[in-house]
Amino acid sequence: MQGIVPDAGVGRNLITARQTGQSILMKTSATSLLSCAILLIASATASALHPQDIVVTELRIPTHSSGKKGLEAVMVRPNDSQRHPLALMTHGTPRQADTRPAMTPLAMIPQAREFARRGWTAVIVMRRGYGDSGGGYAEDGHACSRNPDFVGPTREAVKDLRDATAYLITRPEVDSSRMIGVGISAGGLAMVGLASDPPPGMVAAISFAGGRGSDAPDHVCNAAVLVEAFGDFGRHAKIPMLWVYAANDHFFSPQLAQAFYAAYNHNGGKATFLAVGPFGQDGHHLFSPRGISLWTPMVDQYLKSQNLVLRDSLLPIDVPAVDPPAYLSGHGLDEFHFYLLGAPHKAFAASPDGHVGAAFAQRTAADAQKHALENCAKATENHTPCTLVMSDDQKAPD
Fold first, then answer.
1. Which end of the chain is more exposed for a tag (fewer CB within 10 A), N or C?
2. Which of 339, 302, 314 is nearest to 324 (CA)?
3. Which residue in 258, 138, 264 sits closest to 196, CA to CA?
4. Do 263 and 230 contact (CB within 8 A), yes or no?
5. What pLDDT is attached to residue 51?
6. Pairing of the two strands 347-350 and 356-359
7. Percentage of residues in the chain having pLDDT higher than 90
8. Where are the beta strands (DSSP E) in the chain?
9. CB pairs under 8 A, 24+ apart, for 347-350?
10. Which of 34, 194, 39 lies closest to 106 in space, CA to CA?
């Protein structure tokens, strides 16, 4: 990766970034999404010319269940010598099992950076069976079978998160006195499970589109059993939560989300429920780089209600000083600025008539370049040739 600096610990330093935008919005549009090119991430050079406000480090978290490899993780934190409260973050589960190995914590750096800007040491943890984490996949509850299990797989996810926390609180970057958890989809349900068995010092958790068992758009296998699982976790809930679901979530419908909430709180859970307007083509992906301007005000308001505001102002993000190609305008120009703050490894391609394609969070720069060119070719319908414009934060050779 461009500009990696070795870390003194078990990881390696990666990146910094800049973003603005704080107004509360509950509905989105294509125009607002394009205008909010506020992703995150600019690669740091080994000989940085100025101090960086935020630093990103790749980690390997040792746990017994994950074997010699450990759990793949990325830490995103303020660049100072202070300990900061931990924001433990985790991912969802793709519908297609064969895509799990390709997952990477790099993809969630933009979201994690928003917590770092607010004073948290954010750590994205890949659970067993995902990405390059060790240990076998332990979350198969046979959701679409006659004997589905949603509680067991969630407890396996919780095991990974608790084991990761036990290691992370030994790190000099982490203040364990008031920690939070943040997850999306199956990772959101994992946070529901973690709230029923939180590690010491965890005081709140956030679930974006929490659930599991959706095998196709607008379909969830054995939904009634999933609702019961939420109720079961509610009986043992020990810390408050924020739940966020969008109106056009095609994994878990608004009606099903309300059923989750009713079962959870009826049995003793302490969740604050936010039903928000549509987001993009599928509101399940609200907690994403393109949704940052929408979900950060919700998180800010909730953290304030829990007395968890750590800073009076946000840390800035450094944006790469790179000029766009002169032939880009409109959508293409918006996408170029969005790209500059994207998750590495990344690449950007364009055609002379202004069509563009990009790829983010790839394992290698070569993979990013290949996918960017393919995406650009799809946009042009192969009518005009695409060329590589950017690779990570460097302009491609002419």
1. C
2. 339
3. 264
4. yes
5. 58
6. antiparallel
7. 83
8. 5-6, 12-13, 15-16, 42-43, 54-61, 71-78, 84-90, 121-125, 174-184, 202-208, 241-246, 271-276, 347-350, 356-359, 387-391, 394-395
9. 347/371, 347/372, 347/373, 347/388, 347/390, 347/391, 347/392, 348/372, 348/388, 348/389, 348/390, 349/373, 349/375, 349/376, 349/386, 349/387, 349/388, 349/389, 350/325, 350/376, 350/386, 350/387, 350/389
10. 39
| Gap between the Cα atoms of 51 and 164, Å rounded | 29
Q: What mean pLDDT value characterizes the chain?
A: 89
Q: Which two tokens stand for residue 35?
A: 């205008």
For residue 108, which of 251, 254, 295 has the smallest C-alpha distance? 295
Contact at 8 Å (CB) between 388 and 373? yes
- The Cα 229–Cα 157 span in angstroms is 14
Q: How far apart are CA 31 and CA 44, in angstroms?
A: 31
Tokens in use for 3? Answer: 């500009």
Question: Which segments within 333-380 are labelled E, that is strand?
Answer: 347-350, 356-359
**Rg of the Cα atoms in the chain:** 20
**Residue range 187-194: mean pLDDT, rounded:** 98
Tell me, what DSSP letter sits at residue 335?
A: H
Instruction: Tell whether the torsion through CA atoms of 310, 112, 322 and 328 is positive or negative.
Output: negative
CA nearest 3: which of 11, 14, 12, 19?
14
DSSP SS3 for 21? coil
pLDDT for 200-223, tens place per residue? 999 999 999 999 999 999 999 999
Residue 321 and residue 394: Cα distance in Å, rounded? 10
Write down the pTM of the prediction.
0.87
Q: What is the side-by-side order of every strand in the sheet holding 394-395?
A: 356-359, 347-350, 387-391, 394-395
List the one residue out of 21, 51, 77, 61 whose CA is nearest residue 170: 61
Tell me the per-residue pLDDT of 114-156, one tens digit each, with 9 for 90 and over.
999 999 999 999 999 999 999 999 999 999 999 999 999 999 9
Tokens of 145: 């079978």
Of the candidates 273, 307, 346, 306, the residue with the CA atom closest to the CA atom of residue 110: 346
Tokens 């800073």 belong to: 311
SS3 for 55-107 is EEEEEEECCCCCCCCCEEEEEEEECCCCCEEEEEEECCCCCCHHHHHHCCHHH
CA distance 364 to 367: 5
DSSP lists the bridge partners of residue 16 as: 42
